[in-house]
Amino acid sequence: MASSLTKDSVQPGTPGSEKTFFGHPRGLATLFMTEMWERFSYYGMRALLPLYLVAPAGLHLSAASATAIYSVYLSLVYLLALPGGWVADRMLGPRKTVAAAGTIIMLGHLTLALPWSGSFFAGLGLVAIGSGLLKANISTMVGHLYKGTDDPRRDGGFTIFYIGINLGAFAAPLVIGTVGENVNWHIGFALAALGMALGLGQFLLGSRHLDARSDVVPTPLSAQEKTAMLRKSALWAAVAVVFYAIVGFSGVYTLNWLLVPITIAGLLIPVLVIARIKRDKDLDRTEQSKMTAYIWFFVAAAVFWMIYDQGGSTVSLFAEKSAENSVFGWGFPVSWYQSVNPVMIMAFAPVFAWLWVALARRGKEPSTAVKFAMGLLLVGASFFLFLAPLAIADGGHKAAALWLVAIYFVQTVGELTLSPVGLSVTTKMAPAKYASQMMGVWFLAVTAGDATTGLLSIAGVDLNKTGIVALEAVLAVVAGVAVWMYRKKVKALMGDVR
């Protein structure tokens, strides 16, 4: 990346003489590389996770247990983004929080690399905690690099940053997945740790280029608040230790004693957070109306992510067992399917950005509600498409790899109609009192969707069965039709937001 840095041929100290990254502040290079390596480690481990859980040389669990663990892990990552933002706002500031997050993620991957099941689940917990801390804050630091929301470079800066995310996500399954599946699972997890170490080292070396606002703790805890927080944290930690000690020594402990509470929390906390904001009497009538509209988008997003994130669990486990993972006679590891989405995102995101602008100029751009309906219809269509390879496998044959590529393609198109739009509308509709918290609320939609998948798997539902896949597809389509039918009502509730 050093070759992309430029320096104007003027005297040092004059405006415009500072180094830039594709015309953007130098700190963007630091955050770009940090996020790229963090996503490399995260998506590499994620691609291996369900396969390792079912592999005879791994934990050799059932597909239902693997899906439950995978889904609960994803829901926990997004659930922890909310307290991750709180830690930066009240205790450490964004820069120190991200440095701590990178360290925790690296230690988590190293723990995953140890050949013991107990340490494996501890490693998953560490990676989830670190990812929650990082996810909530690194994008905030990108925003700090620009002089307010009117800086004309701002949108372009986030676009470059988004490319870093997808570059890491694309490369990870090809490298970490190949080594994990073909050489050794634990070496694959160790490579994920190496990726995070590279990202952390780059962040620490380049943090001097970040904006001074990234070091600020916006609303620091008072001494009394710190004491109260430590007391409550110690109390709850003691309760958890005592409870699980009793369960463990009584001989009744199973993995569900851990998974079920996390899953229930993943379903209840989003509801409680939304309800608390909606009941807040400080919100005026306009803000209340916008929050009512936002509930529609939140529920729609939860349904979308419930199906979409099964691309890494249900669809991946099907590929491992029932697909012909080769193209023109050339075989490839199952984890490589997880590179399909990021490469398609990089290819089609600019097309969608151009399309919305072109339609807007003609006064024909779909409303936010219509875009959400399109996303739901497409993710539902992807699971209707999934019925074909399931039928082929039921007939005793291996399904062609292109069937699965087609599923990921349709899901990616759906993602592009819903996810960026959801991020945008969340910032636009946020009540002033909750402006800094609403992005965490958006992530809770992912938590709710993945927690639902986890709960179904814990209950013993086989998500690779034709009837269940068809039912999920119908649910998404019905939800999409409902959003479309009530689009005018939702639009009216949104007020001046478009």
From TrEMBL:
What residue spans carry the region label Disordered? Answer: 1-21
Query: What is the recorded membrane topology of this protein?
Result: Multi-pass membrane protein
Lineage: superkingdom: Bacteria
Annotated keywords: Cell membrane, Membrane, Transmembrane, Transmembrane helix, Transport
CDD domains hit by this protein: MFS_DtpA_like
Q: Which residues cross the membrane?
A: 43-62, 68-88, 97-114, 120-138, 159-179, 185-205, 234-252, 258-277, 289-308, 340-360, 372-393, 399-418, 439-461, 467-486
Biased composition (Polar residues) is annotated at: 1-14
Q: Which InterPro entries match?
A: Dipep/tripep_permease, MFS_trans_sf, MFS_Transporters, POT_fam, PTR2_symporter_CS
Where would you find this protein in the cell?
Cell membrane; Membrane
Q: Which PANTHER family match?
A: PROTON-DEPENDENT OLIGOPEPTIDE FAMILY TRANSPORT PROTEIN, RESISTANCE PROTEIN MDTM, PUTATIVE-RELATED-RELATED
Q: Which family does it belong to?
A: Belongs to the major facilitator superfamily. Proton-dependent oligopeptide transporter (POT/PTR) (TC 2.A.17) family.
Q: What is this protein called?
A: Oligopeptide:H+ symporter
Q: Which organism is it from?
A: Streptomyces carpinensis
